[in-house]
Write a structure and sequence with these properties.
The chain has 378 residues and is mainly beta. The protein has a domain at 121-377: Porin. The protein contains three helices and 19 strands. It has helices spanning 2-20, 122-127, 220-227, and strands at 22-42, 45-54, 61-71, 74-83, 101-108, 112-119, 158-165, 172-179, 191-201, 204-214, 231-232, 235-236, 241-253, 256-270, 275-289, 294-306, 315-326, 331-343, 366-377. The strands form two sheets. A 16-stranded antiparallel barrel has the order 1-3-4-5-6-7-8-9-10-13-14-15-16-17-18-19. Its main location: membrane. Residues 7-341 form the Porin domain. Keywords: Cell outer membrane, Ion transport, Membrane, Porin, Signal, Transmembrane, Transmembrane beta strand, Transport.
Length: 378
């Protein structure tokens, strides 16, 4: 009898120990607001609009994140993350159930992580955190025109991808991703690859990345622009090949952080015409903690297009400002505004302003949005 009791107690201890080595976390973020836009294109011309919006700063999402300790510093890991529109309850990311992220893999304390599934590219991982569009201090509406460099992570992830991210080696990290076409006899069609690195030393942070997408109107290059709403004058930017690279740096001193980001995106065979263009983006940004509960942030971005599809060499000026107040560790309220203007030497479809994340472009070369919103994290 005593031996049976001892065995039962031992099994209970072992079961508890095994359970403690595994964890699954439910997490999420809900971002909702009221947005005023001075001009949106309609069938009756330009009209102002006041509307409820979801994800004006950070895309609303929920997810599951898990890890199992396999011993020797090795873990099995997974993430399933779903984006949704809080104002109507529908999925975002083209209706995918886990459209933001869905991956599984192995993680080592000494050697980094290898994961497989639907994942973010290296521009998002290493350059995005240095631009306000890739952070909670600016987000969706602060993205560079058409989100051409994919620094805002609300819309685009890469399917069928294997990804490596290194461990942290004295502040230095690096990684890469390859997305398979999954098409027999067409290995290079619709593939993607990306690399990046970052370095942190005290108050200084630096990051750089490269992203390559190809092939054709049904490619991930096209999906990148379609998903991010690059609609101008009833058309959608599609390209046979997209190459994006960039780098950024920021420096913290006292309650302030200042930064600069440069990116360039090359597009080949836009609209399947054989024409090509490139868009350069120059962003300066700052954020400042007025109090432990309140901060302000701002960014100025100058973007310009060139190449034989430049459409009169359009260039954009965009200014974004945000103030945020934390009601608690998990809930905050914010007020932000973005102004964008575009100039071009000739009449072109790119000659109208279009702030990222809005439902329609402006009817003119200028557009303003102002959003008052609330975020809750769980």
């Amino acid at each position: 009898m005593k031996r049976n009791l001892m065995a039962a107690a031992l099994l209970g201890v072992l079961a508890t120990a095994a359970h403690s080595q595994s964890s699954v976390t439910l997490y999420g973020l809900i971002d909702a607001g009221i947005t005023y836009t001075n001009s949106q294109l309609t069938s009756q011309g330009g009209r102002s609009n006041v509307q409820m919006t979801s994800g004006s700063v950070e895309g609303s999402r929920w997810g599951l994140r898990g890890a199992e300790d396999l011993g020797g510093g090795l873990k099995a890991i997974f993430t399933l993350e779903s984006g949704f529109n809080v104002n109507n309850g529908t999925y975002s990311q083209s209706g995918r159930e886990f459209g933001r992220q869905a991956f599984v893999g192995l993680s080592s304390v000494d050697f980094g992580a290898v994961t497989l599934g639907r994942q973010y590219d290296s521009m998002i991982d290493y350059v995005g955190p240095l631009a306000l569009t890739g952070t909670e201090y600016g987000g969706t509406h602060f993205a560079h025109p058409f989100n051409n460099d994919n620094l805002n992570n609300n819309s685009f992830s890469i399917n069928n991808s294997v990804k490596y991210q290194s461990a942290n080696y004295a502040g230095f990290r690096f990684g890469g991703l390859y997305g398979f076409s999954n098409a027999a006899g067409a290995f290079a069609n619709n593939r993607a690859y990306s690399v990046g690195a970052s370095y942190s030393w005290g108050p200084l942070n630096f990051g750089a990345g490269y992203l390559h997408l190809n092939n054709g109107a049904s490619s991930q290059a096209a999906a990148n622009f379609n998903a991010n709403g690059a609609v101008t004058d009833g058309q959608t930017l599609t390209a046979a090949r997209q190459q994006t690279w960039g780098a950024g740096v920021n420096y913290a001193f006292g309650p302030a952080v200042v930064g600069f980001v440069y990116t360039q995106t090359n597009l080949t065979e836009i609209f399947q015409t054989g024409l090509s263009t490139h868009i350069q983006n120059f962003e300066g940004n700052i954020r400042y903690n007025l109090t432990p509960a309140m901060n302000v942030s701002g960014a100025y971005t100058y973007s310009r297009a060139g190449g034989n599809a430049g459409g009169g060499a359009p260039h954009w000026n965009q200014v974004g400002l945000q103030t945020d107040y934390n009601l608690s560790k998990r809930t905050d309220v914010y007020l932000q505004g973005v102004y964008q203007s575009v100039s071009t030497s000739q009449n072109t479809a790119l000659g109208v302003a279009f702030i990222n994340g809005l439902s329609a472009p402006s009817s003119t070369s200028n557009q303003v949005e102002v959003t008052a919103g609330i975020r809750h994290r769980f």
